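TICKET: design request
STATUS: open
ATTACHED STRUCTURE:
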């Protein structure tokens, strides 16, 4: 029995009863366990630890803030770290998105976006607008509101009665379509499905469309054709619908720009952030929105929303230091450059393993997709559990990568590789080498072809 399966007496439970080795400490892109093993974090935890572990500048900023105060309730006091982090983030946002609302995580950030959009509709005399169209598949969080826009039947299934599931359109998996269209035409085709959905639902009932500019947990570093982004914006404008970009995973320099959406001129109306702003130091999330949306809500008596830890001074002091380190260490540039190195390494793996049907991503948000046939992109049968197997084999060899199988089968198993943005060229080579070993063993076990 490996220690992945060892049941140990504990009061804790998460998804299953599977236990993991106990972490002792972490520094840079590495973690060490109590039993003395070293892990290289090829996924930044759940694509969260953007600046790496144990950054001394952030730890010092947190210590300094802790000595002043760790808490002051936002309805009783302003606090300087929240003020400063809001100003910092506002300066990094696209267009007029300069109003920031803090929360404690990604699901809360998504909830906040949905609620602001809805309250804006009420405040502007459009009370019939409540539907938020989402993509299938997609992941936007585990709380009931965020789950209502999450396209993953395995996660939403048990809870359908508890929430109001929202309309969905297919995620733009254009790379897999076998038609005579160019990639750009496919991008337009997927965007046009949004217009068809809006018309079918009744434009007067739709308040927003939510999407990740670059896919994460459900669509694995999915990048749509360029034409998709501009077209989505046009369609939202045509029907007065707000465009929400969920940047919880793709934001904070992860893809080589501050936001994933910054690679295109797609002008979101509301943005959610989390993961990278706390970078594993504190639970922190945020929503950015423009005054044109915030003002009518404030004018009608205020935003009917808030959480105890919103704008927590310790969390915001850490977040501010994280932003400073992103700039000081040049991590946006490094994410882009190391991302190119990583994609090149992954393309080399694809030459060795023809069952890698797709290599994709931007910056240090990348993925490989396993298929039965790289030409037709036909999927492997579900019993070929290659994503989980590669994850386990890599883990046994001290490499962490990210895998989540989404029910419904529009994509093959994918493994996401998304190390901290401080990764060096050498780290990338080490990650690719261990991943290659894991895939070689898995290929043998599943009888899949290997070149050379
Ligand atoms: N949105 C996206 C795009 C995410 O990737 C995640 C987390 N994987 C969430 C929302 C939810 O964030 P959290 O787990 O912090 O609630």
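STATUS: resolved
RESOLUTION: sequence designed for all positions
ATTACHED SEQUENCE:
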């Amino acid at each position: 029995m490996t220690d992945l399966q060892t049941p140990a007496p504990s009061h804790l439970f998460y998804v299953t009863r599977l236990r993991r080795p106990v972490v002792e400490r972490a520094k840079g892109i590495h973690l060490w366990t109590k039993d003395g093993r070293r892990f290289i974090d090829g996924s930044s935890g759940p694509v969260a630890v953007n600046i790496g572990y144990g950054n001394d500048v952030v730890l010092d900023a947190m210590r300094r803030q802790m000595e002043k105060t760790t808490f002051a309730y936002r309805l009783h006091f302003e606090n300087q770290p929240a003020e400063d982090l809001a100003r910092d983030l506002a300066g990094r946002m696209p267009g007029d998105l300069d109003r920031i609302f803090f929360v404690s995580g990604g699901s809360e950030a998504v909830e906040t976006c949905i609620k602001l959009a809805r309250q804006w509709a009420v405040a502007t005399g459009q009370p019939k607008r409540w539907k938020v169209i989402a993509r299938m598949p997609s992941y936007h969080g585990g709380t009931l509101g965020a789950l209502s826009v999450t396209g993953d039947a395995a996660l939403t299934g048990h809870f359908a009665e508890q929430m109001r599931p929202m309309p969905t359109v297919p995620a733009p998996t254009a790379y897999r379509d076998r038609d005579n269209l160019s990639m750009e035409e496919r991008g337009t085709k997927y965007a046009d499905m949004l217009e068809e959905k809006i018309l079918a639902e009744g434009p007067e009932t739709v308040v927003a469309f939510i999407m990740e500019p670059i896919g994460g947990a459900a669509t694995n570093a999915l990048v749509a054709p360029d034409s998709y982004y501009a077209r989505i914006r046009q369609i939202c404008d045509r029907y007065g619908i707000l465009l929400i970009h969920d940047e919880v995973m793709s934001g904070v320099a992860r893809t080589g720009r501050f936001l994933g959406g910054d690679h295109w001129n797609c002008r979101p109306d509301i943005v959610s952030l989390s993961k990278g702003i706390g970078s594993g130091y504190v639970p922190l999330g945020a929503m950015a929105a423009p005054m044109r949306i915030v003002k009518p809500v404030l004018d009608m008596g205020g935003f009917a929303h808030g959480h105890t830890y919103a704008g927590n001074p310790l969390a915001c002091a850490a977040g501010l230091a994280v932003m400073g380190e992103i700039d000081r260490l040049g991590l946006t540039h490094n994410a882009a450059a190391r991302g190119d190195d990583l994609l090149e390494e992954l393309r080399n793996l694809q030459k060795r393993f023809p069952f890698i049907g797709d290599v994709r991503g931007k910056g240090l948000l990348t993925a490989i997709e396993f298929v039965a046939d790289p030409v037709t992109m036909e999927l492997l049968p579900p019993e070929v559990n290659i994503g989980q197997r590669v994850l386990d084999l890599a883990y046994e060899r001290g490499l962490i990568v990210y895998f989540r199988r989404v029910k419904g089968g529009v994509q093959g198993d994918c493994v996401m590789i998304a190390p901290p943005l401080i990764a060096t060229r050498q780290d990338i080579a080490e990650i690719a080498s261990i991943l290659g070993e894991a895939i070689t063993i898995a290929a043998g076990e599943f009888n899949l072809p290997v070149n050379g």
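CLOSING REMARK: DSSP finds 13 helices and 14 strands in the chain. The radius of gyration is 22 Å.
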